[in-house]
Amino acid sequence: MIQTKSKKKSDAIIFVILCLVAVAILYPLLFILNNSFKGKFFISKDPFSLPNSETFAGLTNYVNGLTKTGLLSAIGWSFFITIVSVALLILFTSMTAYYVTRVKSKVTSILYYMFVFSMIVPFQMVMFTMSSLADTFHLKNPLGMCVLYLGFGAGLSIFMFAGFIKSVPLEIEEAAMIDGCNPLQNFFGVVFPILKPTAITVAILNAMWIWNDFLLPYLVIGISTKYKTIPVVVQMLVGSNGNKDMGALMAMLVLSIIPIIIFYLTCQKYIIEGVVAGAVKG
Is CATH 2.10.60.10 the right assignment for the domain spanning 59-279? Predict the structure, then answer.
């Protein structure tokens, strides 16, 4: 009885803590949504109040934001870069992880640890060199961005795939080889379908990162081309002297986070499954 009461008490405390964490996470989103329907002058004056008959601006902020930024074009380029980058990451990092896991040698061990080491290198250490190389190799375009994201996202993706592949029994692959499968058929026909939980997790984590990334597109593509992504065009609403249209800014932030929230809610059940499969089993 004492243990039951103690467990109920601890569960109640955990529930309260989780509720507070949920409020802390959701409040900024609700704050942005609330202010996106208020006049830009009232946002600075009273940002925490709900819209009323005086402050309510309807869809004016959304119309102004779309007119000033060209967000629809940016959404298209963001979708293209995100989808292609994630597809390349899943394909190439899963194959690389399979190779460094199954082929035991000093070269593959060094290669694996180099990928793992890349996870802890701050982007700021390499951003100027990366920008120069991107200019040299003509990567300052959407396809070039996909190549850069493949490089920067490979470390974590290979780490997760390799951890899961270590748990896949070799007997399955040996049976496929006896049936006449070559290494590529073995990987794509036998191993890759088993990697589905980790592949979905890798896709979710990288899609959220690439969709919301500002610094890499800003450094590589910049603001003077037609290939601007969503974070870049949203930043354009901040003037050179610090002047900003807060109403349009809030409205564009709402539009920019809706797709990734829908994507996350659709796939979030796979995240823990894939992380556990890739990190614990390995």
Answer: no
Strands (E), 129-275: none
Whole-structure pTM value = 0.84
CA quadruple 65, 67, 68, 72: dihedral sign = positive
Evaluate whether 189 touches 181 at the Cβ level (below 8 Å): yes
* Residue range 128-181, pLDDT digits in tens: 888 888 888 888 899 999 999 999 999 999 999 998 888 888 888 888 888 888
- What's the chain's length in residues? 282
3-class secondary-structure state, position 81: helix
Facing residues of 244 across strands? Answer: 238
Residue spans per domain, the chain? 59-279
Cβ atoms within 10 Å of 272's Cβ, excluding its own: 11
At 178-188, the pLDDT tens digits run: 888 888 888 89
